Amino acid sequence: MDGLMKTALWLVSLANILKAAQGENIHFVGGGKYNWAPNVNFTEWSSDEHFYVKDWLYFGFDKNMYNVLEVNETSYEKCIDTDFITNITKGGRDVFQLSEVRQYFFISGRGFCFNGLKVAVNVEDVPPKPSPSSPKNASSSISCCRVCLLLTAFWTFVSPFILLLG
Ligand SMILES: *[C@@H]1O[C@H](CO)[C@@H](O)[C@H](O)[C@H]1NC(C)=O
Ligand SMILES: *[C@@H]1O[C@H](CO)[C@@H](O)[C@H](O)[C@H]1NC(C)=O
Ligand SMILES: *[C@@H]1O[C@H](CO)[C@@H](O)[C@H](O)[C@H]1NC(C)=O
Ligand SMILES: *[C@@H]1O[C@H](CO)[C@@H](O)[C@H](O)[C@H]1NC(C)=O
């Protein structure tokens, strides 16, 4: 029973590892779970990240203070919060999927955009997927290698427990 549990847990973790290796990342805007706030340098944050199609943005904030609106470039530059494209604000732990290869612009209304509460995100095409049928493709082999390393590390760590109990 215990061994079965361990195996089940292992399979769940394996699924998570594979999912993480495949992409579809979530980006915590500003670098943390509660960082949609005026004291964060979002230009610095977004230039350190790579955004790919289907990735998610997570905005964590005090909904009584701030909001999140998708706007066009002009509105982003000038902090215009009327006639926005999308209102992303819900409960203050809000997500948004980047579905196209383009630049996205987000601001907070209520004047906070003028204090720097705005971010521009440049979405790139999905990186080439690891494919076992093209082993000569350099970037694919690197990705495969990464998955193998993760699996090996994980197996080394967990297998003693499974052998012990199962
Ligand atoms: C944010 O960081 C960038 C790069 O380090 C810097 O050039 C810019 O002046 C900073 N912006 C603010 C508002 O501090
Ligand atoms: C951006 O949106 C504003 C407000 O809706 C609009 O007046 C302006 O024409 C738009 N600019 C562009 C370049 O689409
Ligand atoms: C955005 O949506 C939220 C939740 O539905 C709502 O409370 C808020 O008033 C909206 N903001 C704007 C600027 O429309
Ligand atoms: C990898 O292979 C795919 C499909 O053959 C190709 O489109 C892609 O450009 C290749 N990538 C590299 C880095 O060679």
Please tell me about this protein's structure.
- About 35% of the residues lie in helices and about 20% in strands.
- The model has no long low-confidence stretch (mean pLDDT about 85).
- The protein contains 4 helices and 8 strands.
- The strands form 2 sheets. A 5-stranded mixed sheet has the order 2-8-7-4-5.
- With about 170 residues, the protein is of the alpha/beta class.
- Helix 1 (about 1-20) packs antiparallel against helix 4 (about 140-165).
- The chain starts with a helix and ends with a helix.
- Keywords: Disulfide bond, Glycoprotein, Signal.
- May act as a carbohydrate transporter.
- One of its GO terms (cellular component) is plasma membrane.
- It comes from Rubroshorea leprosula.
SSE run = HEHEEEHEEEEH
Runs in which pLDDT lies below 50 for 5 or more consecutive residues are none
What would the CATH topology be?
A: Immunoglobulin-like
CATH superfamily, called what?
Cupredoxins -  blue copper proteins
Q: How many strands, which pairing sense, and closed or not: the largest β-sheet?
A: 5 strands, mixed
Cofactors and ligands present? 2-acetamido-2-deoxy-beta-D-glucopyranose
Number of domains: 1
Query: What is the CATH domain class?
Result: Mainly Beta
User: What would you say the CATH architecture is?
Assistant: Sandwich
Q: Kindly state the mean pLDDT as a whole number?
A: 84
Query: How much beta, percentage-wise?
Result: 15-25%
GO molecular function, one term: electron transfer activity
Family: Belongs to the early nodulin-like (ENODL) family.
Protein name: Phytocyanin domain-containing protein
InterPro entries: Cupredoxin, Phytocyanin-like, Phytocyanin_dom
